[in-house]
Design a protein that fits this description.
Radius of gyration: 30 Å
Number of strands: 0
Number of domains: 1
Shape: rod-shaped
Number of helices: 7
Length: 224
Amino acid sequence: MGILSRFKDIMASNINALLDKAEDPEKMIDDYMRQLNSDMSKVKAETASVLADEQRAKRVLDECRAEIRKLLNYAEKAVESGDEEKALKFLERKAIQVEKQNQLQVAYDAASANALSMKRMQEKIVLDMGQLEARRVHLKEKIAATKAQQQLNSRGGSLGASGSVLDAMEEKVNQAYNEAVALAELRAEPKDDLDDLIAQLEKSMNANPEDELDAMKDQIKNKE
């Protein structure tokens, strides 16, 4: 399954919470960044294959749906011409295709879910990278401010503005985090339910061939 096997771990990771508990935040930031870069490389390498699987599953499903519509059309024309035996054969073949369609729908749903998971992982990794970079910048600035304070202390001076400077830095990090979260939310797309709706409509066609034949005959009578 490749990188998809790490989906839960990647999505559940909380970079800020882990860094807050770290004894050496600077080292941990470097370690996490290397891991995220590795994960991103794997996501990019496997995405093409996952998307190809999704497209292939959709193409086969669409072909099956087209065959169902074609057989249904043939059956209707046979009923209109008075050949009920031929119409029944078309409907029986259609019933087999409907069963096949149900299996293909399951395969397509799985492939589509994998493609969505790849997209969500990529967005999460990008978000985590942004948080790490923001924490790295904040950490370096905080260390620099601390060193400046220590130098002044060694000379008997003080850095009265250090508190406000650090507060401003923290506000900058919080703003960067909020912007990253907002960007991820904007990138998230609602699931397209069109295929599900089509599947539900076509499942309603999964009737007994004899019953369908009777229904077609009734429709033709109503038209007369």
